[in-house]
Write a structure and sequence with these properties.
With 417 residues, the chain is an alpha+beta fold. Helices cover 34% and strands 20% of the residues. A hairpin with a 2-residue loop joins strand 1 and strand 2. The longest helix is centred in the middle third of the chain and has 17 residues.
Length: 417
């Protein structure tokens, strides 16, 4: 069988008046072939090769389902298919997914609008580093955009942890004048702990408690579907393009947030929005937001720590003293929004410290060791000193400590002994 180019040459040589023998000689084919295609002037058509069966065929419906849910990672898909009995190579799966991944990038989206007061969208943006409290810190921008009005609240922080996350929510509710019915989030640890292969997710209990306190319902974006919360991501990009390049030279985090607050009030929320063609502040008045709860939410972080044998607990990269009698004890630690660290035994607060700004520091309250120093100064009747904390148990022997006069240590410090 000849190809299309050879067929075209036969037709062209025939129009030039060449004989069948000359045409066959020029094309290097049999005269019967030339005669055949002169007698049948239609262009030759080829039947495609019959597709070969693939080991992936029985699993393609499942692959399509996962692709529609936004999962294009072939490593993930390959593990899931192997658990379902797939015996083919990973390259077969990659060749099948690759063109569908590329087409998904250019897939058209339908803009989803929400009625007034129904939805807000929350996101974080990263803006490099900031010198804060004596050391460089990562600089984050929290943003909350209301879906109907496009009113935007934003705030810079040096932490994206739970306390900062909830505090930014409260500040946004206060600035915008209330709480929407739903808040849409990305799949971050402060909102959701994990997902299972079936699509269910484990919510962060602290965030659910916060949502219940303020009366909104948290929602999650579909994984790998960033356009689900495109309104707030547009807000982050707007801050990055409009505010950040012209940000005044300010000192510190407070100055940066003051500049951002002025920009929100004078630029972002009073411009004519490119999608709604209305002013966000004007549309905000039409949003029936829920009023804030009268009782403020307690932002304190509560955790447990075991104190060391020398009477310290470790918290946030620093060491804080506790009373000597609580050495080797399990203690409850409460970090307050005011920057204080409180240590509890049951309901009794046994220690309070100001949180240290840096790291690798030891913060000591001398009163915590008064009783221990007093015991050391008193004459000892026994041949050893009992440990300050709970006893380690009868099977653990306590160390033998030679009792010496404190005058000896003072003489050593002066270099006289």
């Amino acid at each position: 069988m000849i190809n299309v180019e050879e067929w075209f040459m036969i037709r062209d040589l025939a129009r030039q008046g060449l004989s069948i023998t000359d045409m066959a000689h020029r094309l290097g084919c049999d005269r019967k072939t030339v005669r055949k295609y002169l007698a049948h002037p239609d262009q030759p058509r080829y039947k495609g090769r019959r597709p070969q069966p693939s080991k992936l065929d029985p699993f393609k419906p499942y692959v399509h389902e996962r692709l529609e849910s936004g999962v294009f990672n072939c490593e993930v898909l390959y593990r899931e298919l192997c658990r379902r009995g797939y015996e083919g190579k990973k390259t077969i799966l990659r060749d099948y997914v690759h063109p569908r991944r590329r087409s998904a990038r250019h897939q058209a989206c339908v803009r989803f609008e929400t009625p007034p007061g129904q939805q807000g969208q929350v996101d974080w943006g990263h803006f490099g580093t900031l010198w804060h409290e004596g050391r460089p810190r990562r600089l984050y921008c929290f943003a909350l955009t209301l879906g109907y009005s496009r009113a935007l609240y934003a705030e810079f922080t040096v932490s994206s942890g739970m306390m900062a996350f909830l505090r930014c929510h409260i500040n946004a509710f206060s600035e915008l004048g209330g709480v929407p019915e739903h808040l849409l989030h990305d799949n971050q640890k402060t909102v959701v702990h994990s997902h299972d292969p079936g699509g269910a997710h484990l919510w962060n209990a602290r965030y659910l408690d916060f949502a219940d306190h303020y009366g909104f319902v948290p929602r999650l974006c579909r994984p790998y579907r960033a356009q689900t919360k495109g309104k707030v991501e547009s807000g982050i990009n707007y801050i990055r393009r409009n505010f950040w390049p012209s940000c005044p030279d300010v000192s510190g985090l407070d100055g940066l947030n003051e500049a951002l607050s002025s920009w929100l009030a004078e630029v972002a929320n009073v411009r004519v929005h490119g999608t709604t063609h209305e002013v966000p502040r004007v549309r905000l008045a039409q949003e029936p937001l829920q009023p804030l709860s009268g009782v403020p939410y307690d932002l304190s972080l509560v955790s447990t720590r075991r104190s060391s044998k020398d009477g310290f607990i470790s918290y946030g990269g620093n060491r804080y003293s506790v009373p000597a009698g609580q050495a080797l004890s399990q203690l409850t630690v409460r970090e307050t929004p005011e920057g204080r660290l409180e240590v509890y035994v049951g309901l009794e607060c046994v220690a309070r410290h100001d949180l240290a700004a840096g790291r690798h520091q030891s913060i000591v309250d001398p009163a915590h060791f008064d009783a221990l120093w007093q015991a050391l100064r008193e004459p000892q009747d026994s041949a050893h000193i009992v440990l300050a904390g709970p006893r380690l148990g009868p099977e653990v022997s306590e160390p033998q400590v030679e009792v010496r006069s404190l005058d000896l240590y003072e003489a050593l410090a002066r270099g006289e002994a």
